[in-house]
Specification:
glutamine amidotransferase; Rossmann fold; Udp-n-acetylmuramoylalanyl-d-glutamate--2,6- Diaminopimelate Ligase, Chain: A, domain 1; 2 domains; alpha/beta; globular; Ser_kin/Pase_Hpr-like_N_sf; five-stranded mixed sheet; 16 helices; six-stranded parallel sheet
């Protein structure tokens, strides 16, 4: 146990690529002949599986890393809305939860060279005194912080996290850095952080394949009907909801980039406005309504896919949000691609 290295991967926010980075580091450590373990103390990406609420990330980790650990050990706390409600009502014992995590970790770490612990947004868990700084202290872990960077103001979040972790913070990995921000980060941001005592292991460029899902994958997951033959191999990274008037919608959509627009199938004005914006890559029409021939004709001219589902707009929004946020770490191919990026842009040896 004393020879086991424990690394907690945490993040400044949600959906910054933390899972892919954690699993990619674990794969790289395995390739370097380390016997690797994995744990996610607080399960947050929840789905129903054989009657239980489980986090998808430990399930993927167990498959990819060839682990035989039990799910209740890899994910000792299911951080669901029901759990959080129980905490604030006093039905959860903080001490018992900490003991559960520590006991599970002891089992998972036994005989391992390196255990990678996947955290979350670093402040999550405050209601039960299990934020990532608390977990790092509990497991005596060194910490890697994953952060995004678009402008210097994003360094506020990095410094706040660095202050919370203190000496346990080994360094920062920036992810999904756009071309326009890369020079600013390298020339100004990273030297500034180093001047404040925060090490930076590297910065990963933004890649569409790791930042969203294809239109075809979106259609498959939603069980949507394709109403046009528009491009379905393009990636969408975000969604917008069309619930306003046509003129307002046009101004709204013109700011879009790699976006799927969700709107009612009977909203021809919104559909037409969306098709006039180059950043809109797909229309998702709800309510089971079929659009007019004019809309479909314009979509065909613009080579924009039009998908239709029978669900209501609110349900479609929830499903699309989950798919776009979860699509980055859906399979081994994604993690392998992330491992190659880390190898090219990050001081991997310093991490593993």
């Amino acid at each position: 146990m004393t020879d086991t290295t424990t690394t907690l991967i945490t993040a400044t926010g949600e959906s910054v690529g933390k899972t892919a980075i954690t699993l990619a580091f674990a794969r790289l450590a395995t390739a370097g002949d380390q016997d690797v373990g994995y744990m996610k103390p607080k399960g947050t990406r929840l789905q129903s599986n054989v009657g239980k609420t489980l986090d998808q990330d430990p399930m993927l980790a167990r498959e990819m890393l060839g682990l035989d650990a039990e799910m209740h050990q890899m994910e000792p706390v299911v951080y669901s809305p029901t759990f959080a409600e129980g905490v604030i009502r006093g039905t959860e014992d903080t001490g018992a939860l900490r003991d559960r995590i520590a006991t599970s970790f002891e089992t998972l770490a036994d005989g391992r060279d390196h255990v990678f612990v996947e955290g979350g947004e670093w402040r999550t868990g405050g209601v039960v005194e299990l934020t990532d700084p608390d977990v790092a202290e509990l497991l005596d872990a060194r910490v890697i912080l994953v952060a995004e960077y678009e402008s210097p103001k994003d360094l506020d979040a990095v410094l706040a996290a660095a202050d919370a972790f203190g000496d346990r913070l080994a360094g920062v990995v920036f992810n999904k850095v756009a071309d326009a921000a890369y020079d600013s980060l390298g020339q100004d941001g990273i030297p500034f952080l180093k001047s404040r005592g925060v090490a930076v292991f590297g910065a990963l460029p933004r890649e569409k394949e790791l930042a969203g899902v294809t239109v075809s994958a979106l259609a498959d997951e939603l069980g949507a009907d394709a109403l046009t033959e528009g491009s379905t191999d393009v990636f969408v990274e975000r969604f917008l909801v069309g619930a306003m008037g046509g003129d307002e919608a046009l101004r709204y959509f013109r700011r879009a980039r790699d976006t799927v627009v969700i709107t009612g199938g009977d909203r021809a004005d919104v559909q037409t406005a969306a098709l006039g914006a180059s950043g809109v890559k797909c229309l998702l029409l709800t309510g089971g309504h079929r659009p007019s021939g004019a809309v479909l004709g314009r979509a065909a001219e613009a080579d924009t896919a039009v998908l239709a589902v029978n669900t209501n707009t609110a349900t479609a929004i929830d499903r699309v949000e989950s798919l776009i946020q979860g699509g980055r770490t859906s399979d081994a191919r994604t993690v392998d691609r992330m491992a190659k990026l880390l190898d090219a842009h990050v001081d991997v040896d310093a991490v593993i």
